[in-house]
Batch of 3 targets.
Target 1
Amino acid sequence: MQDLEGHKIEIYAISRYWFNKSKSFQRNDDFFSRFIYLWISFNTLYDFYGDLNNENEYNRICSTIDQVFKNSDFGFLHKDFLNLEPIKEKCNFLMNAKIIDIKRFLLEKKQFYLLDLNKYNEITDDIEKIKLVFSAIYRIRSNLVHGSKGHIDYAIRDEKLVKTANEILYNLLEIILNNKFKFY
């Protein structure tokens, strides 16, 4: 049986593999492919490092973000991440985009679950803001994979959302995977 440290190194290498694959999709017409590879890279980390006692995927994402940004070797970078003007703009765009859950059965019932923009604007803790941004990115991923397809307005809007999410995911993963902080 592989030891835990060896498994952590393997998880980190798998995440880096998918992150590096995303770099081959930098043209504008490949943004959906890039998003998928970036999400797989991030998913590899949160699936392993998130709170496995919690089946809620969003909570596992949040616990991973806590581990990354509250780690003593790495925590100082969270201020830098959110204060990079392009990232701040992208986060604000996503949080103002009124991203709904577009599962067909919710649309048919006219049950729309919007992200709470007021909560985002009221929060002063950067880590909590990052969690809400990743809630938006998770919602984008879920809508692409599970949501209703085919409406042209959604497709045009999805392009903008995915391009924005790509920049945020890429920058966060680059910090995690290329700095001294490692999960092992």
Note: Residues 96 and 117 are 7 Å apart (CA to CA).
Target 2
Amino acid sequence: MPVHITFIDSAGTPRTVEANPGMSVMQAAKANNIPEIDADCGGVCSCASCHVYVDPAWIELFPPMSKIENALLSLLPERQANSRLSCQLKVTDEMEGLTFRTTVTIWPLVRPSRQPLSFGRTFLTN
């Protein structure tokens, strides 16, 4: 049975979605077009573009983060104590009513979609 989770974006707009237990929070966000969850790597914990803030009242619901997740989050200047990568968080039945806050990720290796990387050179784009 789906649970309802809410994403609040950096402008303060809440969006409540249905998520099936077993899917990742990132998958639920992408399936419902939640802004500020880019998921550039597709959910393999290699980009940090699915960064969320977990409601502090619910943080203990999740298992501890892996070394890889911690390392990626350590690169984000906007990291907080309740920061997690939503690709690493599985939806469970106990999450009914859980709230996440999203943010615009400011990480040099994460870039807005469809923008070319230049590294000091000019590249042509279509």
Note: Strands lie at 3-8, 14-19, 51-54, 83-85, 99-102.
Target 3
Amino acid sequence: MEFTYRAIFLGIVLAIVLAAANAYLGLKVGMTVSASIPAAVISFAILRWFRRVHIRENNLVQTAASAGESLAAGMIFTLPALILLNAWQQFDYIQGTLLITLGGILGVLIAVPLRHALLNHEDLRFPEGVATARVLQAGAQQSASIRFLVTASLFAAVIKFLQTGLGLLASAWHGAFPVQRGIAGVGLELSPALIAVGYIVGIRVAMLMLAGGLCIWLIAMPVYSNLYPDELLAISVATSFGLWSSKLRFIGVGAMLIGGLWVLLVTLKPVWHSIYQATRQVATDTSTQKNDRTFSLRTALLWILLLGIPIAIVQYWLIDNLLLTLVGVVFALIASFLFSAVAAYMAGLVGSSNNPISGVTIATIFISAWLVYLLSGGQAAFAQDQVAQISAAGLTIFIGATVCCAAAISGDTMQDLKAGQLVGATPRYQTWMQLFGVIASGIILIPVLELLYEAYGIAGHMPRVDMDPSQALAAPQASLMQSVALGVFAQQLEWQLITVGIMVGSVIIAVDGYLRMRSSSWRLPVMAVAVGMYLPLSLTLPIFIGGLIHGIHVRRNRQTSDASVLFASGLIAGEALMGIVLAIPFAIWQSTSVLQVLDNKTSPWLTSAGVVVIVCVCYLLWKSAQEKEK
């Protein structure tokens, strides 16, 4: 049996848990990691206690579970921007749930025609799908590795509890120092999850992210602060973060914008050609039509168009303007199909974890904002009208959320379909499991988001005046979307710095093109550098440390240990889930200090203890990488 009740139940439960964990991780660091392999291992560990369990049943569980992680990515990149805009005073459960769930369902349906076009494409290897299939085929041997996942989860959860709960360990170290008349900033988040993220994405991506961060914090910041010394209030950590937040991160905006448009440009032709060829083949192949009778191309396209109705209702609910609603829903459907195809293609090239979803989302926000701006009458309609600016910016975030969720789910679905193809799974059953995972995680994600917001605050936007700003979740992508959307309507975009970012991104694209022509093993993907530019250096530095551990291990052993991947996944899950658990008392007592036993959070002893613990995390991650394959 393949499509069983226990597979549906377990898939839904894992989708909810992994969606919540990745919501916390994404708000903290602006990245999520693929949940397919951990979900597959957990599925084996649980289902092996039952009789007559088939590999395809485990594949369906993993398919539903990974949908939760992808939907969380689409949500945390966009919806917090509505709070930062003041379009929402708190997370609206009905609007938010409808928005992300409809976007996720749209992505699943768009993947139906893309499967025919891309799954067997000769240039696409779907690395994470192949890796997931390898874990599924390993079966019982991999289920024994659940101890790495559990041990790492407990270890990271204890560290998070000591840091954020009891206050017995420092969670970060930050510093600033003068450079002539200017300033430069440094920092290090003492987070097991960030070390693990770096290990999973690998040394190359981690190195490029660090390079982007160093360019902003150690080069651009001193240069800018020397050119404009009047904006420099003091040599302090607060000043360096304020300068980055208000000015220098727009360099990353420009780099991400040109990166997203470049990805669209280079993938549009091969994607369109593949879809056209696959559509002709399916139309004439009756056996293919029979195998896909539940989700035929015609049925999928019909439901895609019908989804435009509830999407339009949600948008009209916010903007109360029929013309803008019609334009918004048409643009959302077109952009969703276009960028979902791009995300699916990129998933085939680099995998879901390295998919430039944030880049195509910022391109969507930018284009839709200018479209709404021009259709509304331009400057005359928005000058000095803050309410109109917020409402229009909110509409562009709604459009971006739909597109982002659809693209994230589409890329993830293609990875799962590839894994299913390798283990002989039925595509329509996988499609149903994706839908179950999307709906289940969509129902619980908004309450999780509201809980985290009430407990920690998001991007400096605090629900209460007495909250600790150092505990706020950065939500970098959402902050980026808010800045760009509102900046278009308020005409407050830092165009000079955005232009610098576009120029830097263009140079990176040109160098990467040269490396591609030389068939170099080293590449320079612009989105990795751009994300590093946009994130605080304190986040990219621990990610680099994790990537360095991965790089040294691969150089010595020629491959990545499955045990180490599971250990890294456990570190992420443990810290994220403990962060959510701690959010419950924090929200109830409306204080992040309710459990703390020490008042002095800046003690050098706490910082030293935090560093020692992170060194232990790195050592244990290295030891897990030495685990021999059974």
Note: Strands lie at 172-179, 182-189.
